[in-house]
Amino acid sequence: MISTPSILLGALVALQATASASPMKQRWLYEKYFDLQGHRGGTGEAVENTLPALAWGLLAGVTSLEVDVGITKDGVALIYHDEIIDKTKCKDTAAAWADDKMFPYVGKSVANLTLAQIKTLDCGSLRLTAHPMAEVYPGTKLSTMDEMFDFVDCATSDPVLYNIETKVNPEKANATRSPEDFIAIMDKSFAKKDATFMDRITHQSFDWRMAVLSKKQWPTMRTGALISDASIYNNPNATTIANLRPGATNRLAGIDLTKVEGATVGERVARAAKQINADNLAPAAASYTSTNPDASSPGYVSFITKDMVDTAHALGMKVKAWTINRKNAIEPLINLGVDGIITDYPSDVRVQLERNGKYLAPKADYKRVMGCLKAMNQVTKDGLSTKGF
């Protein structure tokens, strides 16, 4: 048995070797693999956007860890999806200090809570109804973006990619921190990293202003344009060019899709993403008009179309589909030519991708990952840091 100290020493040696290599040789090294992405780390594997979810994503052999980032009141980049602390995901334990008028914190906005307040929450005990097989890790605290980077550096020497989604509300200005705040605060974390590390990051958002600001701040960083029916239609139940929402919106960074060239909605979506210089188009797999979630059944309507994928490819972009949680959806997407799949169940989707001959990233070492999780997963006083249930 290899001891944890030996593992970490080996990781340090490997990281030093990587750092000494030519940045151009390391640039986007993991992109040789089909982009299997663990959604929120791997929501179906363990509680979303926590170190345990990242751990199980690594063990599944993801190419990319997809995570969400919000910004706290005191300006810290936090790995969490929702604008408000969700009672189905987190539990209060105690106030951060005596007579804290913000307590209880569940139900409060992330943007109105400090990191100290958020760190009192137990966000590892509750298993979501939609993911009954997910591991829970009682007492697990939410992590900062810096803490996530440190954990992954500990858990693997492979240059796993990050797909970081910034949770900016494009329509309600005070619901989250501003796009400019997100860029400035994230830059504090990125400034600690070298060019090789930065090459592993994609920044995506439903608010395309973030992609524009991202390219301005970090010109070589890849960006992703997230989109679904809700971003472009007046009525998502009528998905035609005639029903496209007219006028500029923050969701599309000021682009009016009715004025974008294209014979189909799919072509226009791809060309709009190119206008903001996105590297990836990240569309929802299913249209909201679907009456059946199963891609092989009557009533299913795909939002992703062949013309969307082909146009994106012709313009030099890749297409990363979300959120793929049914096996019947995988092969049709592969036939459409998508370059990546974002899923809550990376271990199961990996099996299907292997059957389709996709070249996939290696799985991380179990002992090393769990050793790092034991050492680095922060828990409340009643937590059980290393044992899932």
UniProtKB/TrEMBL annotation:
Q: Where is the signal peptide?
A: 1-21
For the keyword Signal, the answer is yes
Xref: InterPro entries: GP_PDE_dom (IPR030395), PLC-like_Pdiesterase_TIM-brl (IPR017946)
Q: Which UniProt keywords apply?
A: Signal
Pfam families listed in its UniProt record: GDPD
- Choose any GO biological process term that the UniProt entry carries and state it: lipid metabolic process
Keyword Transmembrane included in the entry's annotation: no
Return one GO MF term. phosphoric diester hydrolase activity
Q: Where is the GP-PDE domain?
A: 34-353
**At the top level of its lineage, which domain of life is listed?**
Eukaryota
Name of the protein: Glycerophosphoryl diester phosphodiesterase
